[in-house]
Amino acid sequence: MSAVLVTVVFAAVAILLAAYFSFPCRNRPFDLKVVLDGLLRAESSVVPSPDVRIAVGFGSCLDIVGNGLSVMETIGGLVPDVPENFNEINGPDELQKTFAYFFMHGASAGRLTKNNSLFDEVMTIMKDLPDTRFMLGGNAPAMTKRFGKEAVKVLLAASVPDNHLKEFSTGVSVVHGLAPGSDVHLVLEYKRQAVWGKYIATRANRFILYNQNENNFTSLLNEFSAQQESFKPHVLVVGGLRMMLNFRQSNGRTALDELNILLAKLSASTKIHLEMSSFSEATQLQSIVDNAVFYADSLGMNEQELPNLLSFLQSKRMVQVSDSHPRIAVTLDHMRGVFGILGSTPEANGRRRLSRLHVHTLAYQVIMAARNSTWKNSMAAAAKSALTANRHTCGSDTVDAGTATLLTDESFANGARPDDGRTWFDPKNPVSCWVEDGIEVCVAPVLVCTRVVQTVGGGDNVSAAGLVLQI
User: What are phi and psi of 278, to 5 degrees?
Assistant: First the structure.
């Protein structure tokens, strides 16, 4: 009996050792250089065509980017005992409580204030901080710069001051290039593990305060509509959706109403991609869904915007803040839910069925694309998005494995159901792709930057990088 027992023990040990060396595990860290080489190899397998034409809108702003904690400490008052999420900021107390709410979750957010004196006070504080940066901001300029780096042709609809036009590559044409008095966004950044009183940030992120007082959307849109007819873009990329909710034009329509007219009449040969934003009120998101989301072929969003959109589509309920480090299985299921609803949109009166969905998180990228659509190269696109996340946040075109880390596990569940199966991570071929129900799914790990230079504009850069390889 003892000999049999010894044999069984040795057999069990052999099986465990085989499993250990067959699959990577947390106790045996991945060689990040191997992972990086695999991502670079996947990215370089596809080169964007110089004949690709992308139209990007709408609007731009001046981003004043600085240390959020320095602002909170300077503006006065005690660290709030109870964080609270206000949909609109009316005073310093509400600003601090709302900042604390998202800071402790490590979640990005943006809020409007109509309190001009508060806005001016915060702006003055930020201008006096030693490390404050001033840059051209907004979804459209950020994505345009990324597209320009890929040497494709771009038509940008945004009010860009003269002194910022030089920031774009020679392949970019700007509609309505002169704009005195640009809108200003105050970007309050913070680092991972930053401490403010009893609160600790779970990840590096930012809170944006904005106070738009002017809007020339109608004239901008009219000029763009005329030029895009001859430009004939393969894709129209639309950002700045949140800003369109704040203005009513002289003709009584909102900026979003004006956008809807353009989207509804756009030729089916031009795909429409929407870059989503965070929304705090159900009426806002309802307007976005009715006037823009139902007209999109493709959507880009982060881990906060995804569960909010899905919850609203399913039950009209809002998710104000969600997990800033969601499991891949959760994200996949949420994406399936959104794809299931929007992928069956009746194609009438300009409305379109969703055929592509890109979700970018700190730890990974996921792209879903319908196999019967014109979207292509999902694996390369996912890899490029993952690499761009590092390049942007580290502020370097070269990815350094020595200043990066992986936050993904050695494997992930493909969904919440027991029969969904698991996918094991292969460091040499780090992008995992498969097909389900006519949809190609690709998941790519991000080599997360450990020496963060910037967070603002990260989602725009990542989304643009993925999109340019799929056109």
Answer: -85, 140
